[in-house]
Amino acid sequence: MHINERNIILASKSPRRKELLENIGLKFSVKPAEIEEIHRGAESFGGIVVDLAQQKGEAVRDLMFHKRLIIASDTIVVIGGEILNKPEDRDHAFEMLKMLEGKTHSVFTSLYVYDGYLKEAVKGFTETKVEFYPLSDRQISGYLDTHEPFDKAGAYGIQGYGSKFIKKIEGCFFSVMGFPIPLFSQEMYKLGYEL
After folding, report:
1. Eight-state DSSP code of residue 133
2. Which of 13, 80, 120, 131 could form a disulfide with 168 if both were Cys (CB 3.0 to 4.6 A apart)?
3. Residue 165 placed within a domain
4. Which residues are catalytic?
5. How many independent structural domains does the chain possess?
6. Is 13 helix (H, G, I), strand (E, B) or coil?
7. 161-193: per-residue pLDDT in tens?
């Protein structure tokens, strides 16, 4: 069955996730999960990011009374064992970028899909290694002036101005952008869907 024959909900307000799914021809509605995201004690970064996506997906699933296919995701940036979420303000974003510059960090992006037709859920995550070039304070300040970093985990966007700082990437580019398109495609195929 083609996946667009289902009623699909994206449980996210992320414009990057919306764009990535539209780019593969998916037709869906957007219903962000109105929840406070909390870490519920997962023991690994992969476990944390999957749990966050599951929280979003389940919150939206519980609002829907008809059959739906619900897609959720989350992204965290990790360096030196520390999770970098979205920056609180300009100073916080500057501090994050200083942590990342000249080093390699990990981006964990999860997938949670609840299929209300099959009554099944699939979940997983990717880890992508991203290496930054060394950056001067002036380069970082100039980047902050673009306002791109302020709604992104780790305070940068790989698909925008932030692409200038990337020396090397090992793993899934789309996951760093915000959604693991190849993983999603494979999992949907296993459920019997064609994209």
Report:
1. P
2. 131
3. yes
4. 74
5. 1
6. coil
7. 999 999 999 999 999 999 999 999 999 999 999
